[in-house]
């Protein structure tokens, strides 16, 4: 039996009730807000950056891929939207700090939204743990995936919360609350065998989100949510996703992920929630039975995500998922 103090703590950490996907949202709530999107040159990050800019936010894209990032920004500016590209390696603290400062100088109106979408695909751990011959020395394992997909998100989160506390300490609770959206993955709930760096990093991002999802009374009252995409056709998966599709796997689109991300960023009734976007046998629809978009129920004090994933398995959401 939980004490009332434990119950209060659990309620604080669990945030708002599970996402109600039927409630309408107003994307124009981001008008005039300053947003930073890492990994905004491609795929899911690009989709979110463009949607924010089209709805009136001032969007700074921090990405390592300069040409693609500049093209996204030119495309937005040509249509009259406000956007900036800052070439950034998210794995470097110094680079991210300078990029945040450049973005804040450009917008000159504080910081309201941060989306941590930069990421790279996994390596295969077996390449470094299976000796090539009896005389082989252990090779030093790669850490790039951990450096970008976890440490990079750690830097982004620290910067976001620092500037939220700097700019929003006295923002009235009725105003648009600053938003941080971390991007984990289904691999943050069930890692693929030996895609160990990716699975560890995505579990790490989920753990980081759990630790920061409830601001305490001494802080700016930000909202922190988590997006957990399943297979999505983007630059990251382009080289191999057709193999899974040929075998019957269902994939989500960037637009499916952007729709879910916008709900998490704009719906002020949604805080400290995690949402999965998986391609489902009947296509992706928000919040309906058998749809691929659902609140993961990643709560403290309940069976949480395990129960929800089992329910979704029973509903057939993951039929053909592995192909
Ligand atoms: N595509 C999927 O199936 C899938 C599934 C689950 C989670 N995700 C996650 O979604 C996020 C977006 O991935 P995506 O599928 O859109 O891939 P993507 O390759 O299309 O986009 C990733 C972006 O991150 C940028 N990036 C990579 N390394 C960087 C670095 N060191 N510094 C700055 N930018 C860097 C890339 O240049 C690229 O623009 C990632 O975190 C990824 O792990 C993707």
Automatic annotation (TrEMBL):
Keyword flag DNA repair: no
Pfam families: adh_short
Keywords attached to this entry: NADP, Oxidoreductase
Annotated PROSITE patterns: ADH_SHORT
Superkingdom field: Eukaryota
Stated family: Belongs to the short-chain dehydrogenases/reductases (SDR) family.
UniProt-recorded name of the protein: NAD(P)-binding protein
Taxonomic source organism: Zasmidium cellare
């Amino acid at each position: 039996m939980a004490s009332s103090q434990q119950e209060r703590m659990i309620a604080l950490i669990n945030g708002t009730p599970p996402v109600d996907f039927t409630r309408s949202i107003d994307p124009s709530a981001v008008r005039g807000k300053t947003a930073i999107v890492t990994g905004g040159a491609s795929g899911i990050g690009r989709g979110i950056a463009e949607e924010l800019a089209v709805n009136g936010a001032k969007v700074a894209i921090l990405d390592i891929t300069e040409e693609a990032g500049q093209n996204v920004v030119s495309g937005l500016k040509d249509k009259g939207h406000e956007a900036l590209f800052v070439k950034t390696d998210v794995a470097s603290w110094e680079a991210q700090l300078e990029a945040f400062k450049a973005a804040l100088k450009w917008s000159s109106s504080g910081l309201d939204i941060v989306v941590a979408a930069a990421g790279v695909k996994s390596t295969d751990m077996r390449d470094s743990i299976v000796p090539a011959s009896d005389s082989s020395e252990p090779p030093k394992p790669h850490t790039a995936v951990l450096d970008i997909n976890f440490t990079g998100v750690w830097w982004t989160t620290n910067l976001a919360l620092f500037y939220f506390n700097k700019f929003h300490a006295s923002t009235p609770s009725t105003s648009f609350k600053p938003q941080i959206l971390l991007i984990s993955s289904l691999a943050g709930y069930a890692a693929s065998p030996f895609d160990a760096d990716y699975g560890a990093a995505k579990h790490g991002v989920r753990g980081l989100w759990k630790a920061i999802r409830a601001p305490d009374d001494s802080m700016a009252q930000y909202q922190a949510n988590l997006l957990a995409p399943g297979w999505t056709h983007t630059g990251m998966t382009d080289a191999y996703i057709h193999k899974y599709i040929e075998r019957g796997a269902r994939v989500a689109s960037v637009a499916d992920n952007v729709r879910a991300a916008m709900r998490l960023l704009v719906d002020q009734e949604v805080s400290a929630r995690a949402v999965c976007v998986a391609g489902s046998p009947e296509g992706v629809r928000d919040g309906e039975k058998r749809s691929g978009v659902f609140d993961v129920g990643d709560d403290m004090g309940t069976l949480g995500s395990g129960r929800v994933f089992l329910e979704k398995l029973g509903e057939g959401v993951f039929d053909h998922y592995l192909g």
